[in-house]
Amino acid sequence: MSARSSARSLVVLAAACGGSAPPEADPAKVADFATTMIRNLPNVGGVRMCEEAELPGGFRMTDLTTRKLTAKLRIPGDTEHADWINPPELDSPAARVLLDPAGDVHERGRAAAEFFAASFYLVYHIDNVNAAMALGMNDPKIGTITVRAIRYDKAGRPVCVRVFAFQNDKATMDRAVAKASEGGHVMVDPAIAKGLQDDLRAQYLQWGLPIPRTTTNKVSVENR
Predict the structure, then answer these.
(1) pTM
(2) Segments in 74-189 forming alpha helices (H)
């Protein structure tokens, strides 16, 4: 039996068994949609606050990932768009597949189909990184991050937001402050800064998943 007839037989067998290939979509259209969402980024206070029930089940992405998916919009060089404070674990797995232009064409097509099948999109946009020691400056103030989780509809329009905030773990911060004070320098050891960055990433995942919520310690989202 030739290779062609063998392949045809497999297709016939799959059809007979009710099998079908998973749906695929054009990843380029994901780029267009991501561009629409970034251009529709609401101002602070520009849309209503989300109810908790509106947050689970959407397609999740950080603002950084959304910008990377556009393939053409500039990624700001500010701290809010740094890799260390935009953990990829916040993204839906299909987003990571779409970010790889050299990935398998069918896997990317299936990821695009999953993207467009979502009932809504939740984009994590960092508004403020107030974490001097995590950025290398010897300032004992506890690091605080303020985020808006923005829900977009299937047309890429913002519907509502959930504002939340998180801080460095207090014990981790206290150890870093004590260690930094030993040197008496304006800048802290890069290893200390890296430890605080890693802690903030961990806090982000703890308080950003499965739905965004503010920590119970003294973080004020009103004073961002």
Answers:
(1) 0.84
(2) 93-98, 105-117, 170-183
